[in-house]
Amino acid sequence: MTKDEVQRVLKRLSGVSLLMAQVMYGSGIRVSECVQLRVKDLDMEYLTITVHDGKGEKDRVTILPASLVEPLQAHLLKVQQIHNRDLEHGFGQVGLPYALARKYSNVDREWGWQYVFPSTTLAKEKETGIVRRWYTSESTIQKAVKKAIRDAGINKHASCHTFRHSFATHLLQAGYDIRTVQELLGHKDVKTTMIYTHVLQRGGLAVKSPLDT
Questions:
Q1: What is the CATH number of the domain that holds 167?
Q2: pTM of this structure
């Protein structure tokens, strides 16, 4: 999508759906990576997002749009209130990778490990019987974005993943180095990044999110 088309879609979203769409476009992360973001993955001061176990089970760091700091902070205040209520009612345990809960007691109740975009409901884990608050399902944001694209009158075949493609294309069109964009996207081979565009590379520029321009 063009930058104008992206903005038309964003204007037709609201609340958490809007914030998630802005994160996907502004940071170039996949929908699966977005829903599984944890509080500790966001660095509001350095404006970075750390994506853990991305495609190929690799970690990477991408940019956090400066314009999303205040909306994210306001959102996280609400999420923390939900987490505190869960704790008061004997819940608040979140699923952890690599069996960390067995290594470190109560770490699964810590605020930093909670999901940025948690589910609105609690659910029992089949394997353990523990009642947890999981992350928002991918289908929830996918449906909202699909409707926004349709309401915006955009006839292109677009989805949540299109935000990632747009992020890369718009950075390259702005003159950012293709190697830098490759790192932000987490592509193993620069050839994968080169499919977006063949604009002139300038290199050496500090990256600013397309959401901020």
A1: 1.10.443.10
A2: 0.86
